[in-house]
Amino acid sequence: MAGPRAKDGILDMPAYVGGRHSIDGVAETFKMSANENPLGASPLALAALQQPGDPSLYPDGEAAQLRAALAELNGLKAEQIVCGNGSDEILHLLAQAYLQSGDEILHTQHAFLIYKLASRAAGAQPIEVAETDLTANVDALLAAVSEKTKIVFLANPNNPTGTMISADEVTRLHAGLPDDVLLLLDGAYAEYVDPAVYPAGFDMVEAHDNVVVTRTFSKAYGLAALRLGWGYCPPAIADVLNRLRGPFNVNQLALQAGLEALKDQAHIADSRAHNHQWRDWLVQQIGGLGLTVRTTQANFILVSFDSPQTAAAAEEFMCAQGVIPRGLVAYGLPTSLRLSVGTEAGNRAAVAALQAFVVRGGNE
Ligand SMILES: Cc1ncc(COP(=O)(O)O)c(C=O)c1O
Description:
Elements: H1 8-11, E1 30-31, H2 43-49, H3 64-74, E2 81-84, H4 87-98, E3 104-108, H5 113-121, E4 125-129, H6 138-144, E5 149-155, H7 167-175, E6 182-186, H8 202-207, E7 211-216, E8 229-232, H9 235-244, H10 252-263, H11 265-288, E9 292-294, E10 300-304, H12 308-320, E11 323-324, E12 326-327, E13 336-340, H13 344-359
Parallel strand pairs: 1-11, 3-4, 3-5, 5-6, 6-7
Antiparallel strand pairs: 2-8, 7-8, 9-10, 10-13, 12-13
The structure holds pyridoxal-5'-phosphate (PLP).
Residues 35, 86-88, 112, 155, 159, 186, 188, 216, 218, 224, 229 line the site of pyridoxal-5'-phosphate.
């Protein structure tokens, strides 16, 4: 067939497949596959959505109010914040702006898939770097840097392993990189970590020209459907992204709801507390079933089985019971399932489903 031909890198990758959200024939489901906030969005954000304003008008393409609020909350410079249609968009923009054919990017062994997809789409080659006990290995990352390396992507905490490296380790990683290699610190799960110990990295953005931090409203802020994220960038990188992005890349409802959500830090604290309580409960209960379970620094846990076949069978069994976990074959963890911390009812249903699976002899 003739017709336009997409760039090679694009056709080298499968399309991103997200967590399942419904199960045929099962009326009531608990979606625990996409790390969304089981407490939902702040009531302030929901109220803002009831007042959509005039949809015939373009939104503020500068996202000025939202950037000012983000700057104030986090002690940052508003002009260095770039908002995106989800933090995914910021990742894609960075890849488009800084990668071309022949370049390489580094990502950890079990990294968020968008790093690979965005880099391939820009013609670059993703290089997977081995982890130690499912945790980013700074020495291995530094050893993998070549003159082709342009970006190092690090989610901290990481999805789907949920592990986090310390501020010292992040600093050591940066210190070992050449000045022209961009270090991308993805803080999608930042709000779930105790703020007193979280290595946010904003200070590194201010001190260096080659560090960008991304954040999202999709997880703890409970606004995944609206697609809102942002990056904190050195001035030159913010300038590049602002030239490249669509002029109205963030829609009006996202701007309004995001602004209100930021005012409700009590909701974030409640979400963090709910997560801690039920994450610990899930680990304890599922461990008690004799299954291998790992806690994380984020809003999900990992449950492991004796083979990929058993993990797949457990996924199907749980789905049939109305509990939807995330299979991790695409992430290179075929014997594990990722289970987002849910509502109390969802968490109890997940444990009951796993218990029934074990009782049937599913993990033998
Ligand atoms: C590590 C990580 N980064 C970024 C994202 C993207 O989030 P969004 O585009 O919804 O802001 C996700 C979503 O799952 C994630 O897990």
